[in-house]
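INFO worker-7 received task bundle
INFO bundle size: 2
INFO processing item 0
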Amino acid sequence: MSKIEILLIDDSLAFNHLTRLTIKQAGIECTVTEVHNGLRGIEYLKEAEIIPHIILLDINMPVMDGFEFLEEYMAAGIDKNLSHIYMLTSSSQEADKQRALSYHSVKGYFEKPLEKNDLLSIIAGIKNQ
């Protein structure tokens, strides 16, 4: 697999910084593109020349939240199983987890901050496909 492309969709600058640090500490060679709400994520994906391997998606964001992003992602025809979406959220509510995992595009659900072992598990999952 060539260099891993990650799209980070989260409005929290602090958590985005922590996620980038975790990626760096894990020694994963990748490109991380960061947008701060679901609408910008959709716009990015519609215009992107390279579809990201991984999308790390928060639930609670302004403008368009994670669930609205998932609906628009499928409705816009972007969902071609090219990206693996992982919810990365501060929500520990079981209802949010079950709702997120009900989308076939969502491959996993992680609470912030992203742990190194979780990140390595995500990377291993996409490399094995």
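INFO item 0 finished
INFO processing item 1
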Amino acid sequence: MERMVFGSTPKKLPKFVSKEVIEQMLDNARHDKDKHSTRNHLIMLFLWHTGVRGAECIKLRKRDVLSDSIMVRGGKGGKDRTVPIDPELSGLLRMYTDTMKADDTVFPITSRQLRNIIYKYRVSGYDIHPHTFRHSFAVYCLNQGMNIKALQRILGHGGLNTTSIYLDLVGSDIKESYAKVDWRVSQ
């Protein structure tokens, strides 16, 4: 699927998966007997609930985990931002980092290891990468009614035009909005 912007070449729309596919991946990790399955589950849950980039996940330090948010330091373009987190994720992160020092990296893995974790728990028939979680997060948030300006700030996009590409993926909203238009002929 491509997106046309006036005066430009078509751009490919980001690939995303449904909440159900993400939940199946989380379930796969939850039931894995691997010694790192708890960490791997938490990494995927973290990506799903925050929409952060893979590199931002890998750089997260314990001191950046607050009670209701995380601080993303040195994101794309060197920008810092605050990303809200839900109570479930907050509690899990606090338990997971309980014995860590403030400057310790929460998930001390490489980007290749992150890709391998995602690959290990993927659902058959889906090509899923760490960035797929980001796209899926954005689409899910918009489908749940999140304000696009708030989503822009969470994702750390410099301009609203970057975030607006996700609107093209939320087809049900377009159909619902169109259905509200009264096309009857007035007499």
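INFO item 1 finished
INFO post-check item 1: DSSP finds nine helices and four strands in the chain.
INFO post-check item 1: The CA atoms of residues 68 and 87 lie 7 Å apart.
INFO worker-7 idle
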